[in-house]
Design goal:
The chain is of the alpha+beta class and 314 residues long. Helices cover 30% and strands 25% of the residues. The radius of gyration is 18 Å and the shape is globular.
């Protein structure tokens, strides 16, 4: 499998830590020390999950080496939704006139994007498609409660889109070497670790410590499985990207892997936790920092729980 092009949309608005002192009593220093976040992205009044998704796809189309209408499968993979019936996949199909494509929505919390890649891998293996579009749009601020001192200050908004093909389409394609996912609903707090109940209290994180412990452990678990599947060693990976939930988690993962933070790419300081878009977004933002032939591993952990990793070669 190959990534043919990547597109992003990040809202212009940034909410600084200072905003939360009056909202939930947390100081800027407290937030930064415990999360690494200085600002977070937030949509404008005329932006939402759907508009961000379409903008990210439009950005990806700019460098797409074939006609967007050749896409045979559209997968929207994320947990924030504006409409659970008229999904992002169907909105994109209509907007870009992709007639005849299969369109589905899938969610596995913050590991949704990699699960989306695995769904595409399955469709390719069955011969039901050979070109696909994967979209992830997370408007966390649509659901989050800023007054919640446990997690109200974490969330940012952003969208990312990848066009993926079964065969190489151009010399600029990124080769996907492995995709690994695993459900962890029976581990730790599992489905009780992070919740999103739109009609009740929005996004909540009842037990951040349990999330922290298992995120560190299982992102490495997913990485090790993906390395084994692809016949690689940790030393073969030039850069690592973790789900951008908390910079302390990234630092702990780096410590457990006995690697310096200089090998980890991040955007959490500026954008906050952009959910399942975060790791894929970092790769798209920092692709010019990767040299030809270098390999990058993206590791994620989602509330629920779930984990995943995929490895690409430029």
């Amino acid at each position: 499998m190959y990534i043919n092009s990547m597109g992003i949309f990040v809202p212009e608005l940034r909410v600084p830590n200072e905003h939360f002192l009056e909202v939930n009593g947390l100081t800027s220093e407290w937030i930064e020390q415990r999360t690494g976040i200085k600002t977070r992205s937030k949509v404008a009044p005329d932006e939402n999950i759907d508009t961000m998704a379409i903008a990210a796809v439009e950005d990806a189309v700019k460098s797409l080496p074939y006609d967007v209408k050749e896409t045979g499968l559209i997968v929207s993979a994320h947990y924030c939704v504006y409409d659970t019936v008229a999904t992002v996949a169907h909105k994109a199909q209509r907007h870009f006139g992709i007639h005849g494509a299969k369109a589905v929505y899938a969610s596995s919390a913050c590991s949704s994007f990699i699960n989306g890649l695995e769904i595409i891998e399955g469709y390719f293996a069955m011969g039901k498609a050979d070109k696909a579009l994967l979209i992830c749009s997370e408007q966390n601020t649509y659901y989050s409660n800023e007054s919640d001192p446990k997690s109200g200050h974490l969330w940012g908004d952003a969208a990312v889109a990848y066009f993926v093909s079964k065969e190489r389409q151009s010399e600029h394609d990124l080769k996907i070497l492995d995709i690994y996912t695993e459900g962890l609903g029976d581990i730790g707090k599992g489905p009780g670790g992070v919740c999103l109940r739109p009609k009740e209290d929005g996004i909540t994180m009842p037990d951040g410590r349990d999330v922290f412990i298992h995120a560190c452990r299982y992102m490495i678990h997913a990485l090790n499985n993906s390395l084994e599947n692809s016949g690689l060693q940790r030393e073969d990976i030039s850069k690592f990207i973790c789900h951008q939930a908390n910079k302390r988690i990234v630092a702990q993962v780096a410590h457990q892997l006995d690697m310096g933070m200089d090998r980890f790419l991040n955007n959490i300081e500026e954008l906050g936790n952009t959910g399942s878009a975060s790791a894929a977004l970092v790769l798209a933002q920092d692709i010019e920092k990767i040299q030809k032939g270098e390999k990058v591993a993206l590791m994620v952990f989602g509330g629920g729980y779930s984990c995943g990793c995929f490895i690409v070669e430029k």
